[in-house]
From TrEMBL:
The gene is LOC114439328. The keyword Lipid metabolism does not apply. Residues 1-23 form the signal peptide. GO terms for molecular function: ATP binding. Transmembrane segments: none annotated. This is NACHT, LRR and PYD domains-containing protein 3-like isoform X1. Residues 31-126 form the Pyrin domain. One of its GO terms (cellular component) is cytoplasm. Pfam families: LRR_6, NACHT, NLRC4_HD2, PRY, PYRIN, SPRY, WHD_NOD2. The keyword Cytoplasm applies. It comes from the Eukaryota. It is found in: Cytoplasm. Residues 205-337 form the NACHT domain. Keywords: ATP-binding, Cytoplasm, Leucine-rich repeat, Nucleotide-binding, Repeat, Signal.
């Protein structure tokens, strides 16, 4: 049967073709139109998407039942069983072809979805041909409308269409409030701007795009419209309707429907009877210019697009989704006006950030076809940070291009603009010049302002001000005439004022950009006040005053302007205020003297205005208003601007957590466009958090040194920093990420290995690095383009294996590292094999190496010797503090310094805090006298050296081959006898020592006399002498004071502070201080006794309330904050022994209150398993030998260290040393964490606390 049917069908098809070929053409067209009237597949899909899951399941069941489909074929169960909505549409079309719509309508009726039946009927009623015709007409009209937006290429005299100069803008998605935008935010291409989020079903409903004034919001929307009209965007968008709030403001009092609006603004759509389920995009540009109330709460709810209502109600219902529910709505606004729309009606927020640095160059090259001119302007812009930053805002880039083009064309070398006000002044002067040349025949170099031109500009200023006061941004010809402006005269300034395409019969005008209107309005206020003495901003009629005489009136003008702008909730007057205060500067008024010379005077109220603005900032206005006031300070060129911003963020007046990304962008723009020097960026001066970092990344990129230590930086921050490092425009050369408890090496490595990265110094002290980090850093160091010269990995648990991996990179030929710090990295003597390996490498560049506070012991130095003696070695400085070395290491190092195989490259050797004894120092002094030794700096502080070493040191100093220029013997009990021996060497004419440190060496007046005598004998070299923490007495100080007056002495720095008889005690007891426990800080379960020198745990004490008392944690502090060098001992059991800033929290039991669990305290937990802790990072210590009966604490505040010692039978054993930078006095504190805990302060004689600051004579 089938074999006969197919031929018959073919014959029938041929007959039908022949029949159609003889039909009347009109009839054929109607039949064609009817055939094309079927709804499109995506429209059918839209219908099915409105079915609930249960309804959709029933819908598919009916499609399988032939008996209810009135003769239409059923679709088999197997085809529909697992079909989703898209698959179902495909199955219906494949089965029923042109009858698909009828089948769907029948099935919808069966499940009683009559609303969808009606909608599908409406969709099907309009032919695709008619729809396409409307689309074509609309696109054609929009092309004409937006192609008319051109820029004048004055060097050629030709007009350039917007598409020729359009440069891609940086558009990013804004993260929710309280989170941070980062430079790693994915930028959005214009074709993807309305693409929904991955987790969002269907089309994007409402998009809000924020951006500051001039960042390109309007240009972005118009480019989108133009691309759609030219079929460059995705084809699923059927209609785009661009509106501006400027235009809609004119319809404020009108009653109309949405269909009326569409037909009025877009007459091509009159044939469209319904837009239901069509893919439509509404663009509402310039919410910040909206003068409608947008009353979402009280406007009537509409459900019909043909229903009459106010334009305000039409807009709120559109935004709420009550009308055109399937359409997309795109709103643009300045950040300060965004709150006019309730957040629940916004599905996604993006931010326009203007141009990137690369796009600035691209814009100028597109704008100027003369390549030489373009290159000159680009070079000029890049030479000025403020100018370059301003050019990131497209409208300022356009204005800059105009100003610089004129400057280069006329060979003028005037001072370049540095503020917005200066830029707009120069732009205005260029427009005046162009009008004079074109319409009055003036030469381009003639600065004279024609009277007619001057009058027009002043009248335009009046128009700008009056319309700004009314909130009008579009105005009629009658408005121009009221201000004495002839339309013909206005047309002489096409880059200031323009005629708009009218949607009614009247001519409409607007300024070329809102910022131009705001500038001219501010200019009018200045001119009007100078001329009349009346404040145009005052609501009350004031008496005219003499500007020259009545400064209170001038002060009142600017203060009223500030108040007026702050009272405006949507920031409509923010930029106007910036221009107004900027124009108050006499230097700015001088630039406009040709316009204002007939007024005969000027005004200036700089400092009064600055002080008033600072006062208003301290009143904690909203973030928007606060940022506006910062802009004003920038326009006034106030040098306190950066400090004001830092203080506002640091104190919380400007909450970093509540700032939007757009507001952060504005802050960054203000800072970078100011004249502030940004060689160093310290995040802690702003807000020490990762959130602040991510929003201030442009400041990191602009600085040469960025201090991000103690700022809670995590992987997110490190990934963002990697992008900064790989940016070709980055100035960053040094980065400090110390004390951030995250191993971010892996994330940073991406940027460090980028060819664009030029970072030379990286500090990662105390960042939780492990041996794996060594592997990543090895790759970075061996990378061909690595520029790293200095690397600090101190206070990380790298262990020997980490340094082993690191050494692989250090010996590679591309490695340029010169300084490596590995302080307290958990290293043993075995690591010295890896160190010797890279030090002896021919390609190694390492010149400075710090291995301090690692348990290297003498074995480590012995292993290291091979690398130090290598003929390829370039090491100049070696630091081995706290490495458990003895005199044996001194013998090895002496051998290195006098090596016969090669001349030693070592210039600096630091062996402080090792038990070298006199025997070890004597070995070193032998090397110092060798002609092969080139050592210039030797530091032996706290090395158990006595006067017995001083004779050998004196011999070395007086050796004819000695090259020693700095010697540090501090904290060794040399006494006067040792200083006398040392002075013999200082007297020698061969001694070239420049710096001698004898701090804490038990020196009295007698030792001072010997030193003074030596300096008198050989005054040629010594420049610095440190005798602090000794007992020179008044007579000793006088000896040096007199010597300082001697012109033959070269001594310029003498330290004799913190003196006193107590400094003659041996060891650390010379720094002893008397402590007293503070009962006002004691937790109520702590009981004080023994004159507040002992504390134990009890049930509870009825202490009175005190704000400094710890209420949850059983801790207390001592009464006195300490600075300088201080030492104390305690007997303790199960106790936290700590030092802390006074600002540690007292309320609660969280980390902010607990010693060692925050960045304000450093603690030793003295228990069976002792450990040290700072900022939640703890390190367990080995149990001390013997049976310690006391714990000693030594604070060296200026050196930034606090050390803990166990004391057993009078013997001190070093436990741990914290290194940091103290910023305020620290208080000894104790925490008692067990029932049997106690603390007793040990007294040694009549120790006193010396709080004198460093004294330099």
């Amino acid at each position: 049967m089938r074999n006969h049917v197919l031929p018959l069908f073919s014959l029938l098809f041929v007959s039908l073709l022949q029949y159609f070929s003889h039909l009347d053409p009109v009839l054929k067209k109607e039949l064609h139109r009817e055939r094309k009237a079927m709804a499109a597949p995506f429209e059918l899909l839209g219908i099915l998407e409105d079915l609930a899951d249960s309804e959709f399941k029933k819908f598919k069941w009916y499609l399988q039942q032939a008996e209810v489909l009135d003769g239409f074929a059923a679709i088999s169960k197997s085809q529909l069983e697992n079909a989703d909505r898209m698959d179902t549409v495909d199955e219906i079309i494949d089965t029923h072809n042109k009858n698909a719509v009828e089948v769907i309508m029948k099935t919808l009726k069966l499940i009683q979805k009559n609303d969808l039946v009606q909608r599908l009927s409406n969709l099907n009623s309009m032919s695709q041909e008619s729809l396409s015709d409307c689309q074509h007409k609309l696109k054609s009209n929009l092309q004409k409308r937006f192609h008319d937006l051109f820029e004048q290429a004055t060097e050629s005299g030709k007009q350039m269409q917007k598409n020729e100069t359009y440069t891609e803008l940086c558009v990013t998605k804004e993260v929710p409030e309280g989170q941070s935008a980062t430079c790693s935010n994915q930028t959005i291409n214009i074709e993807d701007v309305l693409v929904p989020k991955p987790d969002q079903a269907g089309a994007l409903r409402t998009l809000m795009t924020k951006g500051g004034s001039g960042t390109g919001k309007t240009v972005l929307t118009r480019k989108f419209v133009l691309d759609w009209a030219e079929d460059k965007l995705r084809n699923d968008i059927q209609f785009v309707f661009p509106f501006t709030f400027r235009e809609l403001n004119f319809l404020k009092e009108r009653q109309c429907s949405w269909m009326d609006l569409l037909h009025q603004f877009f007459a091509e759509t009159k044939e469209v009877r319904s837009f239901d389920k069509l893919q439509i995009v509404f663009i509402l540009d310039g919410l910040d210019e909206c003068r409608l109330p947008l009353d979402f709460h009280n406007n009537e709810i509409l459900s019909d697009v043909t229903e009459l209502s106010s334009v305000d109600a039409l807009l709120t219902n559109l935004i709420m989704g009550k009308l055109f529910p399937t359409a997309s709505v795109w709103i643009t606004t300045k950040p300060e006006a965004a709150s006019q729309i309730l957040p629940e009606y916004i599905n996604m927020v993006t931010e326009v950030r203007g141009f990137t640095d690369m796009k600035i160059d691209e814009y100028f090259r597109k704008r100027f076809r003369n390549k030489e001119l373009a290159s000159s302007i680009i070079s000029h812009v890049k030479a000025s940070q403020s100018l370059h930053i301003m050019c990131r805002i497209p409208v300022l880039c356009w204005i800059t291009a105009t100003v610089l083009e004129d400057m280069f064309k006329t060979n003028e070398r005037r001072e370049q603009p540095k503020t917005l006000t200066e830029m707009y002044i120069h732009f205005l002067l260029v427009q005046i010049k162009l009008a004079n040349v074109k319409y009055y025949g003036k030469a381009e170099t003639d600065p004279t302002c024609i009277k007619g031109t001057s009058k027009t500009i002043l009248s335009l200023g009046k128009l700008a001000f009056e319309q700004l006061q009314k909130g009008s941004l579009i105005f009629y010809e009658a408005d121009l005439k009221e201000c004495g402006i002839d339309v013909g005269a206005a047309s002489e300034f096409p880059r200031i004022i323009k005629e708009n395409a009218a949607f009614n019969q009247d001519k409409l005008f607007s300024f070329i950009h809102l910022s131009v209107q705001e500038f001219l309005a501010a200019f009018h206020v200045i001119v009007s006040f100078i001329k009349s003495g009346v404040n145009p901003l005052s609501q009350e009629q004031s008496q005219p005053s003499s500007v020259d005489k009545d400064q209170s009136a001038v002060k009142g003008l600017f203060q009223s302007a500030v108040d007026h702008a702050l009272q405006n909730p949507n920031g409509h007057l923010d930029l106007f205020l910036c221009f107004l205060v900027g124009l108050s500067l006499h230097t700015h008024q001088a630039l406009l003297q040709n316009l204002t010379r007939q007024l005969g005077s000027s005004l200036e109220s700089n400092q009064d205005t600055v002080q008033y603005i600072r006062k208003r900032i301290r009143e904690k206005p909203s973030p928007e208003r606060c940022i506006s006031l910062f802009c004003c300070l920038n326009e006034l060129k106030d040098h306190s601007l950066l400090e004001e911003i830092q203080q506002s963020l640091r104190t919380g007046r400007l909450s970093s957590e509540k700032l939007s990304s757009a507001q952060w962008s504005t802050l960054v723009f203000i800072i970078l466009s100011s004249e502030t020097e940004l060689n160093m960026f310290d995040l802690k001066k702003f807000s020490a958090s990762e959130e602040s970092l991510l929003n201030l990344l442009p400041l990191v990129q602009a600085s040469r040194l960025s201090l991000l230590d103690h700022c809670q930086v995590s992987s997110r921050g490190c990934r963002a920093l990697a992008l900064v490092l790989s940016s070709p425009s980055s100035n960053l050369r040094a980065l400090d990420l110390s004390y951030n408890q995250y191993d971010g090496v892996y994330d940073l490595a991406v940027g460090l290995q980028d060819p664009q990265c030029r970072l030379e110094t990286l500090r990662l002290s105390n960042c939780g690095l492990t041996d794996v980090s060594g592997r990543y850093l090895s790759h970075v160091l061996s990378y061909q383009f690595s520029s790293l010269r200095e690397l600090d990995l101190s206070n990380n648990n790298l262990c020997d294996s980490g340094v082993y991996f690191l050494s692989m990179g250090l010996e590679r030929p591309h490695c340029k590292l010169e300084t490596l710090r590995l302080v307290r990295c958990g290293l043993t003597w075995e690591v010295c094999d890896s160190v010797a390996f890279f030090l002896s490498s021919q390609s190694s560049c390492v010149r400075h190496l710090d291995l301090s506070m690692n348990n290297l012991q003498d074995s480590g130095v012995l292993v290291l010797r091979g690398g130090l003696e290598s003929p390829h070695g370039k090491l100049e400085a070696l630091r081995l503090r706290f490495c458990n070395l003895s005199e044996k290491s001194c013998g090895v190092l002496a051998s290195v310094l006098t090596s016969q195989t090669s001349t030693s490259s070592l210039r600096q050797l630091e062996l402080c805090n090792n038990d070298l004894q006199d025997s070890g120092v004597k070995l070193l002094t032998v090397a110092l006298e060798s002609p092969r030794c080139n050592l210039e700096i030797l530091r032996l502080s706290n090395c158990m050296v006595s006067e017995r070493s001083c004779e050998a040191l004196a011999s070395a100093l007086s050796s004819k081959t000695s090259s020693l220029k700095e010697l540090d013997l501090s904290s060794n009990d040399l006494q006067d006898s040792g200083v006398k021996l040392l002075s013999v060497g200082l007297k020698s004419p061969r001694c070239i020592l420049e710096t001698l440190r004898l701090s804490g060496c038990q020196v009295t007046e007698e030792g001072c006399s010997s030193l003074a005598s030596a300096l008198s004998s050989n005054p040629s070299y010594l420049k610095e002498l440190d005798l602090s923490y000794n007992h020179p007495g008044d007579s000793g100080v006088l000896l040096f004071s007199a010597g300082l007056e001697d012109p033959q002495w070269r001594l310029d720095t003498l330290k004799v502070d913190h003196g006193g008889v107590q400094r003659l005690r041996p060891g650390l007891w010379k720094y002893a201080c008397e402590l007293t426990l503070d009962p006002n800080t004691a937790h109520r379960e702590l009981s004080l006794s023994d004159g507040n020198r002992k504390v134990t745990r009890v049930e509870k004490e009825p202490y009175p309330y005190h704000p400094e008392r710890f209420d949850k944690v059983t801790q207390l502090l001592c009464t006195t904050g300490l600075m300088g060098r201080c030492y104390w001992e305690v007997q303790a059991k199960h106790t936290d022994i700590s030092v802390t800033y006074k600002g540690i929290s007292r309320r609660g039991d969280n980390n902010d209150c607990t010693f060692g669990r925050n960045d304000k305290s450093w603690s030793l937990r003295w228990s069976n398993c002792p450990r040290v802790e700072h900022n939640c990072k703890d390190t367990y210590l080995s149990n001390p030998q013997g049976d310690p009966d006391r714990v000693g604490v030594f604070l060296d505040w200026h050196a930034g260290s606090v050390s803990f010692y166990s004391i057993s039978s009078g013997t001190q054993t070093h436990l741990h040393t914290f290194h940091c930078t103290f910023t305020e006095p620290v208080y000894p504190g104790f925490g008692l964490f067990c029932d049997d805990s106690f603390v007793s302060l040990t007294s040694r004689g009549n120790a006193v606390i010396s709080q004198a600051s460093d004294a330099e004579i």
